[in-house]
Input
Amino acid sequence: MTISQAVAINAPLRGCVFQLAPLVTIDQQGEVSGSVIDYFRRHIEPAIGRTIEWQGLNVARLLNNLESGECDLTPLLSYSPERARHFRYIDPHLLLLRPVLVVLVPSRLHAVERQEDLYGTTIGWSSQAIVPPLLQHPQIHIDTLSQLSWEHGNMQKLLRGRIDAALFSNDISANHFRAKLPAATRLIYLPVTPLQVHIVLNKSLGDGNPELVQHMRQMVERVPLASLVEPTPRLWGR
Output
């Protein structure tokens, strides 16, 4: 083994993440933190014998960097056949995300059982994210924000009555931002299949390091991230 090969084997891996507070938070200086990052530092890094240096990106750039090899891994990516052609997925999934709406307590929305229940509503979402099929209809208006703190922005629009509901990919994030709002809110779970998100490696790293893949898989099975995430807080109006 040459010196350059030895350095490459022990060099930190390059991790890329998008914001999904409080699971992943990217501050104004680009510093990355959150329970997912803590999980990797406490469990994944010791298991694989490598440290990970994290960079916060939007979803589009993250996918480009993962495919080009500028990024080695990302922790919260959903599966698609197209992505599986370019990346190496680690099974089992790291977390299940179930989309929810946050509404103010007086809202006429109390439950969503079918698409028609949402007709005539304006829903806040992120311009970087895919709109769930349930919400894709001419009578449902999706109002998007492109800023890094889009979750906070949508909650402020909800408070001011500019939108009827704020969409979140999961209840952990929704409750994180609900707790900061000076108004009573409710969660409404959407009738969709929860989304499985995985640790994903770029193709070169995944195919060339079967032991690393095995160690990651074993750790995810042994210490599920879901068992370490803070429980849902009790919030007024829930």
Summary: DSSP finds eight helices and 13 strands in the chain.
